[in-house]
Amino acid sequence: MNRHPAVLRVVAVYSLLAPLGWGASLSKHPVHHRIAHRPTTLNRSAAGSAGLVKTVAQVKKTKTAVSARRKEGATPAVIAGGPWTEPTYADSTAGDQIDGEDLTIRRAAVEALGPYNGSVVAVDPNTGRVLTMVNQKIATGSGFQPCSTIKVSVALAGLSEKIIQPATRLRVPGMRIDLTYALAHSNNYYFATLGQKLGFEKVTYYSHLFGYGEKAGLNIPGEQPGRFPSAIPRNGGVGMLTSFGEEIEQTPLQLAALMSAIANGGILYYLQYPRNQEEARAFVPRVKRRLEIANLIPVIKPGMRGAVEFGTAHRAREDGDIAGKTGTCSENHTHLGWFGSFNESGNHKLVVVVLLTGGRPAIGPLAAGIAGDMYRRLSESNYFAGTPVTPPTLLASQVCCR
């Protein structure tokens, strides 16, 4: 059960005050909604309520305490030019081992990422093969807050539990919206409400089902399992978890595995990363589990396509059809910009996940633009127009669940 019924008021206050500069003080709240598109029309008269102001103050106090616990007394180095602990620009290829990669994919990823500090992971969704992994240290590390990318798994959970149907409209300030609109515009109210209706136990069940809290890969050196909280987050409860990813640590590999399952119809592969071309030629797909989401995928795709066509990921829009989800927030004085995506045109299917870290430019819309540039470069080299790929025989498959 949700022990924090005030989360919707917290989300409401933040959305009202974010355009006035409150985003910097609420250190982990997403900011791409006010950068990427016009916010949903709200009833601003509520902003003057003393009770709401008190709620904001409580959230700020809680987040300061959480940040202090995470730092464990250590003061992080601050990057010159801002209160950031990670640089916005860096050589993201340093230290990568690429002997087993698809060099065409690698080149497009590196050129699209350019000087930004971040990671790009590209996966064949029909096999689980990692075709390139730019900045392997970040991709295999302990993970980062997923920000609004968590909304994809929450949507699947809500549909699985029949809490929402394709035509269901939930009330947000000033209007009622359906799932397609909520995904395309990354509406926090909608997903906070959906999370409260699901409850923490069901959110946890489906999150583990979709791969959170476990390694996405099979024998990928250095890979960490990320983290999913074992209890309701103290800051904002279930609603904050399902709209912002509170207390979750997601790796780029985990998001790539989930996007691959959506792209291929419900097979959650073990991601495998060949170490050399011999291993690449001998590649054998391995299935972690089969997800019962085939009938749900057509329901969430319109919102993910809408994000690219007219929503938060519009910078990824190219000639081909792309579906995806952005995420933007900050954690411990580091801005995070996520974009998980897959193409739906051409013979070759590709999942692309981009994670940016650094200062204020590191946002979801920019990550979407980098992915869009990567798709464009590959399209210009006729990558997607090649011979159709037939999914290979599957090994080590099992029907989920925990």
Overall description:
The protein has helices spanning 7-17, 32-36, 50-71, 103-113, 136-139, 150-160, 179-184, 188-198, 200-209, 237-244, 252-264, 277-281, 297-309, 364-380; strands at 118-123, 130-134, 170-172, 175-177, 267-269, 287-290, 322-331, 334-343, 351-358. With 402 residues, it is α+β, with helices and mostly antiparallel strands. The chain has one domain (7-73, 84-380): 3-Layer(aba) Sandwich (Beta-lactamase). The strands form three sheets. A five-stranded antiparallel β-sheet has the order 2-1-9-8-7, sandwiched between helices. The protein has a two-stranded antiparallel sheet with strand order 3-4. Strands 5-6 form a two-stranded antiparallel ribbon. The longest helix has 22 residues, at 50-71. It starts with 6 loop residues before the first helix and ends in a 22-residue tail after the last helix.
